């Protein structure tokens, strides 16, 4: 059970405060869950990068990005 909502092909520009390289979606999700400052995360599968976000911008479509929002 989780309080996250997940979106495929979406991003919330801005609010990025931490980048995690060479990771996967599950590790990105767990990193956000364990960080009280994290309000959302964007996982870029092609680059295997996770971006933790402490602010929510205006949603936009973004091919190859999976978004999780608390």
From TrEMBL:
Gene3D superfamilies: Hepatocyte Growth Factor. InterPro entries: Pan_app. This is PAN domain-containing protein. It comes from Sinorhizobium psoraleae. Residues 1-70 form the Apple domain.
């Amino acid at each position: 059970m989780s309080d996250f909502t997940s979106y495929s092909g979406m991003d919330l520009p801005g609010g990025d405060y931490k980048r995690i390289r060479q990771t996967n979606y599950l590790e990105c999700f767990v990193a956000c869950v364990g960080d009280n400052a994290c309000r959302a995360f964007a996982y870029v599968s092609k680059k295997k990068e996770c971006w933790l976000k402490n602010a929510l911008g205006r949603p936009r479509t973004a091919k190859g990005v999976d978004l999780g929002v608390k």
